[in-house]
Specification:
By secondary structure, this protein is α/β, with parallel strands linked by helices. 50% of the residues lie in helices and 12% in strands. Strands 1-9-6-4-2-3 form a six-stranded parallel beta sheet, sandwiched between helices.
């Protein structure tokens, strides 16, 4: 049977140190008169220069810095109350994955009869009429290149995805210099998140040769440079390589997406408010161990991309890869288990129940994960 995949790329992709300085010219060339910029407080000096240049050229700008943690439905709805009267022609998201996810949704919801609840799910968004530019300031989520936005639904405390090709930005600027001020702990967590995207894409039940090349190269770049980026945040080369790897992982998210690691990580975020990247890091080696019997060849190839030498067979090589992941997590200074991250063992059964609801990701896993399996994986990671 021929496997079909849908791949959506930004219309324009700009990658390079200092490239963000060209963003004002990009916006001015778009023909827009009003711009909404969603960003974070640490980037306000950069944003102020951008706004000044725009206003000097007759373009009005509204800046929003209210997203400081993983966003909820309520967060997006509150921003819409301010954005709708302003009615910008273009939305720019400059920040981490949460900022980009929100910017993508705001651009889609403006001048749209559909509500946020209407578009929650896969393929329900019918259009986007506003221009959208994204520039990541962390190297992790790959949101700048994906058709996904993830929100916490406060009505049931579950993370939910809004997935549509209309959420892929028109223009993307990947400037690794934006990441220089990111603290080591966030660099580590987001970097392992990006690495997880690549590994889960390559070992996915629905993996595809066209996406494999992005996934393996992303794995190679991130694993080779993430420790340097964490230990010396001003190492521009390390930052650039991790940012590129993160972008490659983001490209994997649309056509193939993630699997068991992300599904089991979601309850850690919704129940204990752990950062998304940290949640993935806590579970990645344990889900890899669980999946290994179902796909030893693929995991051996991941190990090779991680820089491991071949073992006597695929299983032995793959085990070296899992050991390398544990080593990277430790070298990056991240917690080695759920207990260390503040998760209680009593919560594991409820986490397992919640994880079973993430069927859109569980179906991608190379080995079926039951509720009992999820409990066992959480206990192993404890």
């Amino acid at each position: 049977m021929v496997q079909e995949i849908n791949i959506y790329f930004p219309r324009k992709l700009v990658i390079g140190k200092g490239s963000i300085e060209k963003l004002p010219d990009e916006i001015m060339a778009s023909g827009c008169e009003k711009v909404l910029i969603i960003t974070i407080t640490p980037l306000l000096n950069t944003i102020d220069r951008l706004v000044q240049k725009l206003e000097e050229n007759g373009i009005s700008a509204q800046v929003h810095t209210g997203i400081v943690q993983e966003p909820s439905f309520a967060d997006v709805e509150n921003i819409m109350k301010q954005a709708a009267p302003f009615n910008p022609d273009l939305v720019a998201g400059i920040g981490g994955g949460s900022v980009l996810d929100v910017a993508k949704l705001i651009a889609a919801l403006l001048d749209n009869e559909q509500s946020l609840r209407d578009i929650a799910g896969i393929g329900l968004l019918k259009q986007r009429r506003k221009q959208l530019i994204c520039a990541p300031a962390t190297s992790g989520t790959g949101s700048e290149a994906s058709p996904n936005s993830i929100l916490v639904d406060e009505t049931d405390n579950q993370k939910k995805g809004i997935i549509s090709p209309f959420l892929v930005p028109d223009v993307v600027y990947v400037d690794p210099l934006l990441t220089l001020s990111v603290p080591a702990s966030i660099t580590a967590a987001t970097g392992i998140d990006a690495l997880t995207h690549c590994i889960e894409a390559y070992t996915n039940k629905f993996s595809h040769p066209f996406i494999d090349m992005y996934a393996l190269e992303g794995t190679r770049l991130i694993s080779a440079h993430i420790v340097k980026a964490v230990k010396d945040g001003h190492d521009e080369n390390a930052r650039e390589q991790v940012a590129t790897g993160s972008l490659l992982g983001g490209i994997c998210l649309g056509p193939v997406n993630t699997a068991g690691v992300h599904a089991l990580a979601y309850p850690l975020g919704s129940m204990f408010h752990l950062a998304h990247g940290l949640s993935n890091a806590l579970l990645l080696p344990y889900v890899m161990e669980f999946n290994l019997p179902a796909s030893p060849c693929r995991y051996a190839q991941v190990a090779t991309a991680l820089g491991c030498t071949a073992g006597e067979n695929d299983k032995a090589t793959a085990e070296k890869g899992i050991a390398k992941i544990r080593s990277l997590i430790k070298e990056c200074g991240l917690p080695g288990g759920l207990r260390e991250a503040g998760i209680t063992q009593e919560a594991i059964p409820e986490m397992a129940k919640d994880a079973m609801k993430i069927t859109r990701l569980l179906k991608n896993n190379p080995r079926t994960i039951t509720e009992e399996d999820a409990i066992a994986i959480y206990n192993a990671a404890f």
